[in-house]
Design goal:
By secondary structure, the protein is of the alpha/beta class. It contains seven helices and five strands. The chain has helices at residues 7-15, 21-29, 39-51, 55-71, 81-96, 103-115, 124-127, and strands spanning 3-5, 35-38, 76-77, 118-120, 133-135. The chain has a five-stranded parallel beta sheet with strand order 3-2-1-4-5. 30% of the residues are buried.
Length: 142
Amino acid sequence: MIYLLDTNVVAELTTRPKPAAPVVAWARSVPAPALHLSVITVAEIEAGIQDTQDPVRRSPFGQALEDIRDQYRDRIAAIGERESVAYLALHRRLKSAGTGIDPPDALIAATALANGWTLVSRNIKHLARSGALLLNPWEYEG
């Protein structure tokens, strides 16, 4: 099984002084090659770093992003044709239902859908309407 980590999971594991124990336990229970990121997650992290005004706080975040890029270098999913088609289908379905998900989250969910991966996030309620398989590591009881 392949797991696509949402930005909130990556942030929890890489930038929190005391990450949530269930999230750490879940991540340790999964072989590293099964953990993937979306280019959208990398972009969201980069945007967060750029938005951080305090250079003292920004520096460790920048280092964390470098480490993430190195650690996941062969496991960062791009948005290709399959993902684009899945995104369009998701966008149309949600729009016709009168609901929606912000584009970055929809693109991450579409990546999971297009590849048959499980999306790992704390935002289960928000992402449930995407139809992606979801897992909340904050609820892990390993």
